[in-house]
Write a structure and sequence with these properties.
The chain has 17 helices and eleven strands. By secondary structure, the chain is of the alpha+beta class. The strands form three sheets. Strands 3-10-11-6-8-4 form a six-stranded mixed sheet, with helices on one face. Strand 10 and strand 11 form a beta hairpin. The longest helix has 36 residues.
């Protein structure tokens, strides 16, 4: 239907509403285009006021400016706004280069999609278009006096200068480590609320009940039709469709996982599988060439851990510690909002969709596994991680406490005691003991103490 459009535009019409919104917010042209549209409307309003409504007759004489002076004013301010825009673009490139080298290339998307960044660029583009179009029109009119055009032109130029200062302050503030990690955490918390809590938790059940075991012998396996990452799944629509078809859908890949054409994507079984239209279920699953954070919490956690890993390589322990603290808070949100069960039911409490099983350990490993690996024998970072777990432990149940303790216990036994100073060993053991007290694993702590002695 949209084959006549270029590929860069056609893809937006092929996306669902949620993905289209995410993609448009992640590009730099959407907000500037909106501001340019508003600036054209402002051009029409100001020219109408000056040329058709003769606004100069309703204002004090001090606000009346000759056509020649107005042309000089507008032409001068065109260059000024263009210069500010050039400085802003140059600053943007510097910040993006810094983010890419110091933290992670995936940070670029977060900075570009930030609303403050997009509004600032939109204001510059809109103001430049305004003064440019106004200059073209006032040069062809026979009016000798203007009132609204010079006033609005001066206003938008003043707005551009304020926006320039605002953008520089925003970029330098956003670039600070604690703000970067806090932004990452809040984005992941938003995913927890909109995807895991509002879209999935309302359908989850711990007891599967009747799952049509008799019909499962005729289970049909459906392969993926293309290569790519699992980006989006319309769970609500899929549950309702499976209810109408009276089938159960079981996924064989998890959100964010990469699949190749021919890999088993999902399977189904039920009472009337002969009438199933597999293409309808394919339309509810979005597979793309890149990972998408809209429903994939693991990607958000990976971004935080990647900042920590980069900071380890840059000998920046403070950033690593800050990332660990933010990750611990994110883990607390996961525990509070996620029920670790793969079964999704319809309104009749009948299981309709079975996801790939996820556990607390999978989130724990995704968040802290990379940090632990790249930290190696860095006992100072391990001690901070242990302290963060000690604060997390009181808020989780016994099974999750066991997972947390096992993670740190394995980490402790792989540290080399001969490479740790005595005072460092003392504080490290204190951190292990605190976690052992919080999780009730004092016997295991004795083994750690023996290992370090």
């Amino acid at each position: 239907m949209y084959k006549w459009l270029p590929e860069s535009l056609r893809k937006y019409f092929q996306m669902n509403r949620r993905e289209r919104k995410h993609e448009m917010q992640s590009t730099l042209w959407y907000m500037p285009l909106l501001y340019i549209t508003l600036s054209l409307l402002l051009v029409a309003a100001t020219l109408t006021a000056d040329i058709l409504m003769e606004a100069e007759t309703y204002v004090p004489p001090i606000m009346r400016i000759s056509a020649e002076a107005t042309q000089v004013l507008v032409s001068t301010l065109i260059g000024g706004i263009l210069t500010l825009s050039a400085f802003t673009l140059n600053s943007l490139l510097v910040f993006l280069t810094t983010f890419s080298g110091q933290f992670s290339p995936r940070m670029l998307l977060n900075f570009v999609s930030d609303k403050k960044t997009q509004h600032a660029l939109g204001i510059f583009n809109g103001n430049f278009v305004y003064v440019l179009v106004v200059f073209l029109f006032i040069g062809s009119t026979q009016r000798e006096v203007f009132a609204v055009v010079p006033a609005v032109t001066i206003s938008v130029t003043f707005l551009s200068s304020i926006t320039f200062i605002y953008f520089i302050n925003h970029a330098t503030t956003w670039m600070q480590v604690h703000n970067i990690t806090d932004t990452m955490k809040k984005n992941s918390q938003k995913i927890i609320k909109t995807t895991l809590s509002e879209e999935l938790e309302v359908y989850r059940t711990k007891e599967p009940g009747y799952i049509m075991n008799e019909e499962k012998s005729k289970e049909t396996f459906v392969p993926a039709e293309r290569n790519g990452y699992i980006q989006l799944i319309d769970y609500r629509k899929m549950i309702e469709h499976a209810r109408r078809d009276n089938v159960i859908i079981q996924f064989h890949v998890s959100m964010g996982e990469y699949v190749l054409e021919g890999n088993t994507l999902f399977s189904y079984w039920g009472k009337n599988v002969e009438a199933i239209d597999e293409n309808q279920y394919f339309d509810m699953i979005r597979i793309g060439h890149k990972e998408l954070e809209v429903q994939d919490l693991h990607l958000g956690m990976h971004k935080l851990s990647e900042i920590a890993v980069k900071s380890l390589g840059n000998n920046d322990p403070k950033t690593v510690i800050n990332s660990i603290h933010q990750m611990a808070e994110l883990m607390l949100n996961v525990v509070s909002h996620v029920t670790f069960t793969p079964y999704l039911v319809d309104h009749d409490r009948q299981v309709r969709v079975i996801l790939v099983s996820e556990s607390f350990e999978s989130y724990l490993h995704k968040g802290f596994g990379y940090i632990r690996f790249y930290a190696g024998n860095d006992h100072l970072i391990i001690a901070e991680m242990t302290k963060a777990f000690s604060k997390l432990a009181p808020a989780i149940d016994e099974q999750k406490k066991q997972a947390v303790w096992d993670f740190i216990y394995d980490t402790a036994l792989h540290l080399d005691p001969d490479k740790i100073y005595r005072l460092d060993r003392k504080f490290l053991l204190e951190a292990f003991k605190q976690l052992a007290d919080e999780t009730g694993r004092k016997d295991d702590y004795q083994k750690i103490e023996l290992h370090f002695s």
